[in-house]
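Hey, I was hoping to borrow your eyes for a little while. No rush at all, and the record is pasted right below:
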Amino acid sequence: MQYILKTKCPKCEAGIAFRNGVLYGLNDITEEPDVPWVKVKWKRKRFDKCENGHNFNIRPYADYDDHYIYEDIIRKRIKGLKKELKDLEKINAEQI
């Protein structure tokens, strides 16, 4: 299962200025996750920051975005998967 990440800030509609932010050390952002949270062992948060300084797309750091995808990448990903499926169907047809 994958969850969608916004490409514009849900608070002010500004674009992403800083992508995949993580605070190091003992500090972490205080905001609660705003996308469905995938359980991981390490609770540090990954987030994006908009041009106006709002944090959003708050998600687990240790997931490395295996369960998250940016909305502007979905069409490109679907196109690639369709091509791969077509190639696999061709290979499978040749085996029969």
Summary: The chain has a mean pLDDT of 94. The chain has one domain: 3-71.
